[in-house]
Amino acid sequence: MLVDTHAHLSDPRLATDLDFWLQEARAAGVGYIVNVGADWESSRLVVQQAANRKELVAAVGVHPHEAKHWNTQMEADLIALAQHPKVRAYGEIGLDYYYDHSPRAIQKEVFAAQLRIAKELNLPVIVHDRDAHGDVLAVLEQHAPFKAGGVMHCYSGSPELVAHFLALGFYISFAGPITFRNAKKPALAALQVPAERLVVETDCPYLSPEPHRGKVNHPARVALVVQRLAELRGVNYETMAQQTTANAMRLFGLERGD
Length: 258
Ligand SMILES: [Zn+2]
Ligand SMILES: [Zn+2]
What we know:
- Helices cover about 40% and strands about 15% of the residues.
- The chain is of the alpha/beta class and about 260 residues long.
- It has an eight-stranded parallel sheet with strand order 1-2-3-4-5-6-7-8.
- α4 links the parallel β3 (about 55-60) and β4.
- α5 runs parallel beside α6 and α9 (about 220-235) crosses α10.
- The termini are close together.
- One zinc ion binds next to loops.
- One zinc ion binds near residues 6, 8, 92 and 203.
């Protein structure tokens, strides 16, 4: 069994045929999917989608792109939404200095505010970091320890930085880019992660792995990420699947055998 630890099933490209994509996922051996929010609207929708589907759990939070829309009403609404039993993580939150859709000072402020909320709710955090590695690490270190843990999603930092995130107790997640032919850095980073801290994701509908690069991604394709990680680390597919699944189940409190 596999776990896709990061999917955006609220995206209209997947939401309109959700049960079809879930059937595809099941056929590929995907037993659980963490359905991740990025703003208030998508957070509400991912919880709604997860409510009556046993293979889905949800994460709620505001993405750095949307940080400029953060306000106290949204904060109260997200805290209330996070009480739903299917909400197993807080995210995605973090910093994105590649697109800079929100001013950096506001991104940092909203990231910090949401780390405090996640800690209060005792939820693991799902962290987005694009071209902001130093600042992400600094903000996380200011808010440590994270008793419920966390994950660096779609890891794009250097191999050298992996140790710092591991020291915070975080898991490291890899997505489609690890299958891209020019992706030297994530491949090297993946070799720095001990087996018990490695998880996988699609970040669908984005980042479709090879040989489907550029197409709409969906949770079944997490199998291609597992395949690539197995090759890189010189273990067989089954071993990689078992390790990453056990890790995801531990981090998100998922139950086996239903
Ligand atoms: Zn992200
Ligand atoms: Zn995402």
